[in-house]
Specification:
Order of helices and strands: EEEHHH
Strand content: 15-25%
Radius of gyration: 16 Å
Strand order of the largest sheet: 1-2-3
Structural class: alpha+beta
Largest sheet: 3 strands, antiparallel
Number of domains: 1
CATH topology: Ybab, Chain: A
Shape: elongated
Helix content: 40-55%
Number of helices: 3
CATH class: Alpha Beta
């Protein structure tokens, strides 16, 4: 499972996997050449958070499908450390 996040109109693109690990980060050369370190840092954070939100939503939907929509108390605590819970 993988998810992408973008920020700055695509100037920064990141990819995270189902274990909530950052696997790719692409920064457009024009952004690097601008020398605006603060903006680069903010865009990396924004893109990463977007990708993480997407993967968490996907995981929550998959968990609902696996459990038939039944809320099982404590299940998210068990799988939360693995990035599988809600």
């Amino acid at each position: 499972m993988r998810s992408q996040g973008q920020a700055g109109g695509g100037l920064v693109t990141v990819e995270v996997n189902g274990h909530l690990k950052l696997t790719k980060c692409r920064i457009d050369k024009s952004l690097i050449q601008s020398g605006d370190t603060e903006m680069i840092e903010e865009l990396i954070c924004a893109a990463t958070n977007q990708a993480l939100d997407k993967i968490r939503q996907t995981q929550q939907l998959e968990m609902k499908q696996l459990t038939g929509g039944v809320n099982i108390p404590g299940l998210s605590d068990i799988f939360g450390g693995m990035g599988l819970g809600g």
